[in-house]
Amino acid sequence: MKVAELIRHAMPEGTRGKGRWRDCPWWPPDLFAVTALLAERTTAYTILLSAYGRTCELCTEQRRTRLQQVARSWRRDDWPVNGRYRKDKAYLQKLWDRLFNCQSEVCPSERASLTEILPDDWRLAALELMIIADLASAGVGFYPSKDSDERLNWIKRGFLVGGFEGASTHDERARGSSPSYQAQHANFNACKFVTPAVACVQPKTRTPRVGCTLRSLSHHLALLPPDGTVRARWNVYEHKMERADSHVFNLLAVPFPYSVRGSSFVNQDSISEHGQGLFAVRQTWLKAVPKEAFAAFVMQLIAAAKREVQHVDGIVFPEMALDGGTYEALVNELMQAGDNRVQVLVAGVLGGGEQPAGSFNNAAATTVFCQDEANVCFFSMQKKHHRWKLDSSQIIQYSLGEALDPEIDWWENARIDNRDMMFYVFRKGACFTTLVCEDLARADPGQQVIRAIGPNIVIALLMDGPQLGARWPGRYAMGLADDPGSSVLSLTSLGLVLRSNLHYGTNSRAVGLWRDATSGTRQLDLPAGSQALLLSLTSRCTTEYTLDGRSDGGHAYEWVLSGCLPVRCDEVPTWASH
């Protein structure tokens, strides 16, 4: 496939939607997608590494300044008829002409080493265009201050994500209405004319500090797999968030359930001829807990936590901790807290309850609460990507032999269909995503998206034993902390930790594990008599560099654990004692 053919394939309606391809795309994510595809398929980005600081003209300070100037003009939509900016636009078109008029094959069967390519080769033009598109997208996905000229320019051009024009997340919101949930998913592709069947683009927060990949060449945009593999949805909500600029995020981690019975695990299907079966998890821990009583209990935890901190910004529960009805009751209770309520609720939800969770088996439910509207919140659900496999060692570890035969392998009877990855903006320049248990350990398909976007925080909801640094959650968290630089929090239920202790004869109460690139791994223990942990997460600015030597100006944020305190209710319900 030749270069022009790939461009036509990626943008079937033309670069500007008019069936023409000779004009440079006017939308930065479109240009980024096409040129990033070319750079990826030819590994052209390796030129920058092999020639860094010596012969590659893209790595010179003079050329970087020139590209930043062109990107700044494009970003401001500042193309006056006369003056310097006209030259900037012409420079952009000149690069596009060199690229589109090229008759070379994108992936020829035989080609010279990339280090031998002449400086005027079309691959350098593709890299320049990719860099300009990335620079022109600085800050995309995050709202600038309301009084900034940049904000007005972005609104005019549809440049605010969720999002990019076509993502009607904000326009369709019924202000003043009072449904408990509104499914608010931003567009899964930031491009306007690049078809998602070829590639998708989303905002980006972290640039890898290690390795030599295409991901190392951009600060602001990420090239993602085509639609159908896994969809990445960027969720950002334009509303007053009084804590949006804060560098602290106080998270209440509740390792519920505190007790898990062996009868919670049931044989759900006959054994196959291959010696495998299906099991299901019944939420026996919820049977004696009224929904309203559980919501009131969580509110008591919040009140207890606020003796230590001014705000509780988020709450997180482990995998399968709640059902749909209990989750909804908790959301309704939190909605009544007014301006003092939390901003984010994340919980593992098992299907079988009321909407919105009843239509899913095993998923991470997330609700974002508006701070300026009493009756509006935003709900989304990310289904689990991989099933839990219980082998003989785990059956013995959790003492489940009465329900499940340890001589065979048992697979969780969870529905796996469309795969989504949700990313939520929760602070200035920062986003988080969630993973459900096995999704943390499996590289495909979700982690490809995580490594491309580089969320600041990854929250892994587990139904697992003690969270020790040497066990599997710690090992896989280490990989994400190194590349792309995400901080990882894993949280499991105390009930399964205690079942594991019976087998090993230990007294571990490690319900969580925190891992970041700077501080390493920290084990989170829940003291006896406490019902939650209050985690204070603090961000600090760090400077990241691309392969061509571009700095992000110290605008990357790394989140570290700056505090961990136990939380206990004054009046502990019987079902919450342990």
Structure description:
Strands 4, 7, 8, 9, 10, 11, 20 and 21 form an 8-stranded mixed β-sheet that branches. This protein has 578 residues and is α/β, with parallel strands linked by helices. Mean pLDDT is 83; it is low at 114-119, 159-186 and 352-360. It has helices at 3-10, 28-42, 46-50, 61-75, 84-100, 122-136, 149-157, 291-305, 324-335, 392-397, 438-441, 446-453, 472-482, 494-504; strands at 200-203, 221-224, 231-235, 248-253, 265-267, 276-281, 314-316, 322-323, 344-350, 362-369, 377-383, 389-390, 409-412, 420-427, 430-436, 457-461, 487-491, 510-516, 520-525, 532-542, 556-567. The N and C termini lie far apart (64 Å).
Q: Percent of residues in beta strands? A: 15-25%
Termini Cα gap = 64 Å
Could you state the CATH homologous superfamily of the largest domain? Carbon-nitrogen hydrolase
* Structural class category: alpha/beta
CATH class of the largest domain: Alpha Beta
Top keywords for this entry?
single chain; eight-stranded mixed sheet; 14 helices; alpha/beta; 578 residues; 2 domains
Describe the structure concisely:
The protein is 26% helix and 21% strand. It is built from 14 helices and 21 strands. The strands form four sheets. Strands 4, 7, 8, 9, 10, 11, 20 and 21 form an eight-stranded mixed sheet that branches. A seven-stranded mixed sheet has the order 3-14-15-16-17-18-19.
